[in-house]
Amino acid sequence: MKIYGLLVIALLLGACNNNHDYTPKPRGYYRIVFPKKEYQQFTGPYPFTFMYPKYAVIEQDKNPQTKDKKLINMKYLLNMQFPQFKGTLHLSYESITSPKVFNELTEDARTFAFKHTVKATSIDQGLIRIPGNKVYGIYYTIDGNAASSAQFFLTDSTRNYIRGALYFNTEPKLDSIQPVLDFVKKDMNVMIKSFKWK
Q1: Which of 8, 46, 109, 148 has the fewest C-beta atoms lying within 10 Å of its C-beta?
Q2: What are the CA-CA distances from residue 162 to residues 19, 66, 155 (Å)?
Q3: pTM, full prediction
Q4: How many CB atoms are located within 10 Å of the residue 180 CB?
């Protein structure tokens, strides 16, 4: 019994003898490997053209997930997919048939952007003016854990209108998607700067 007690004390002293400093490790995220920035021209039977990244795929949205009949009736609904990042830039085009339609479309863009105020910490608006291409619009930067972090609309103010909204297929946590968001926003800027009406 005495030997058993001495053995237990020796083991306890031995366990306390190592001076290990244990600290909790920060939460880690997967390493993101970004592709090389290369662009190609988007063309087709559409009244517009622009440059977009080679690692993105553009397809027509055949099953729009919306109850808004106005959106379903739009002439073109396109999705620019970023498969590597599980992100989609939704593009919707409509012809402007009257000043009333133009006002409704621009107000819809503002309304859709500001629907994210519940989760957003701020929403900034920036004017887009590229007079040489007759491209004008507003870019909405939505900060915080909102479902969409960037939206915009482009128009020539008389005949054409297109709206874009960027979404990621993941829970909106800005700290984890920020590097990807910054990377994709650069592609959106290239798209906007190269945008031309046909």
Answers
A1: 8
A2: 64, 17, 6
A3: 0.78
A4: 18
